[in-house]
Design a protein that fits this description.
Layout lengths: L11 E3 L2 E2 L12 H7 L16 E2 L15 E4 L12 H13 L4 E6 L2 H8 L4 H4 L4 E6 L3 H12 L5 E6 L16 E5 L11 H14 L3 E5 L5 H4 L22 H15 L7 H4 L10
Parallel strand pairs: 1-4, 4-5, 5-6, 6-7, 7-8, 8-9
Antiparallel strand pairs: 2-3
Length: 284
C-alpha cells in the first residue's frame, strides 16, 4: 500500500491484485501499465512481471495495519473484477474491507457486469456497507454509459463514477442512484483532448441532482501546468464519510487469521497468477 498517493481524490492505494488487460478506449494510455512495464525483468521488483495479471495474497491484510483512518483506492494498479480474478479472492478482499471499517474504500472497475452480479450475490455482505464506495469508469457513450446502468442495478450503499479520461460529450446522463462523480482529462504522452463544455455540462448535472462533484485535472502532456481549476475554482466535493472505531491490534491479528482460513490454500489459485508473490509480507 502507498500511504501518500498522488491521486487527488484518495489518501492511499492498496493493490492485492496487480496487472490488467485493455477492454475499452479508456484503457489506451493506461498509466498503471506504463508504470509497471518500466520494471519488467527487474529482479525482485514488485513489477518484475510488468503488467501481467497477478494475485498478491500477501497484500490482503494491509488495511488492517493502518491505525489512522484513510481513504483507500482499491487496486489502483489493476481491476478487482477482472475475469481471471477468482470469486473467492474478490470475496476475501471484501472481507478485509468490512473488517477494517475505520477506513473508507473506493473500488473502481470497468468490468461493471461482474461488479453488478457479485454485489447482488456473493458480495451482498459488503455491498451495502457505507464505508465502501463502488464505482465504474466512464470514458464515452458506447462503453461508459452502459456501466452506469450496471452500477445502478447493483445493491450498493454508495455508488460513484470516475469519468476519466473524458473522451467525448456524454450528453444528458441518468444520474439516479449516483452519489459522487469524478471528472478528469487524460494525461501523459498522446493524451487525447477534453473540451471545457463537456466538463461544465457534467458539473451542472451534478449540481442539479445534488451530487458531489470532483474535478481532478485538465490533463494533457503537462498536466501540472494545465492545473485543475474549472470556471475559476477547484471542485473537491466528496460524499459523506462514516466514522467507525479502530479495531485493536489483537483483534486485527485474529481477523487476519480468520480471513486467511476462509480464503483457504493459495494453491487453489492458478500458479501463473501467484508467481513471484510468495515472499511478500502477509498480515499485521
Amino acid at each position: 500500500m502507498s500511504s501518500n498517493s498522488s491521486i487527488e481524490w484518495t489518501d492511499a492505494t492498496w493493490n492485492p491484485v496487480r496487472g490488467c488487460t485493455k477492454i475499452s478506449p479508456g484503457c489506451k494510455h493506461c498509466y498503471a501499465e506504463t508504470f509497471a512495464e518500466r520494471f519488467r525483468g527487474v529482479k525482485g521488483h514488485p513489477y518484475e512481471q510488468g503488467f501481467d495479471l497477478r494475485l498478491v495474497p500477501g497484500k490482503l491484510g494491509e488495511p488492517l495495519k493502518w491505525r489512522a483512518p484513510k481513504m483507500i483506492f482499491v487496486n489502483s494498479m489493476s481491476d478487482l473484477f477482472h475475469d481471471l480474478v477468482p470469486d473467492s479472492y474478490i470475496v476475501a478482499v471484501a472481507r478485509v474491507m468490512v473488517a477494517a471499517k475505520w477506513h473508507t474504500y473506493q473500488v473502481l472497475t470497468k468490468r461493471s457486469g461482474r461488479l453488478r452480479d457479485l454485489l447482488n450475490t456473493k458480495l451482498r455482505f459488503a455491498a451495502e456497507q457505507p464505508h465502501i464506495w463502488w464505482g465504474v469508469s466512464v470514458e464515452d457513450r458506447k462503453y461508459g454509459l452502459p456501466r452506469i446502468e450496471d452500477l445502478r442495478n447493483a445493491k450498493a450503499a454508495v455508488r460513484f463514477l470516475s469519468v476519466e479520461p473524458l473522451l467525448e460529450d456524454l450528453g444528458k446522463v441518468n444520474l439516479r442512484g449516483v452519489d459522487w462523480m469524478i471528472v478528469g482529462g487524460e494525461s501523459g504522452a498522446g493524451a487525447r483532448p477534453m473540451k471545457k463544455e463537456w466538463v461544465l455540462q457534467l458539473r451542472d448535472q451534478c449540481e442539479r441532482n445534488g451530487i458531489p462533484f470532483f474535478f481532478k485535472q485538465w490533463g494533457g502532456v503537462r498536466k501540472k501546468s494545465a492545473g485543475r481549476r474549472l470556471a475559476g475554482r477547484t471542485y473537491d466535493e466528496f460524499p459523506r464519510r462514516v466514522t467507525n472505531p479502530v479495531m485493536s491490534a489483537t483483534d486485527c491479528f485474529k481477523k487476519a487469521e480468520e480471513i486467511t482460513a476462509q480464503l483457504g490454500s493459495a494453491e487453489i489459485f492458478p500458479l501463473s497468477l501467484l508467481k513471484a508473490n510468495r515472499n511478500e509480507e502477509v498480515f499485521c
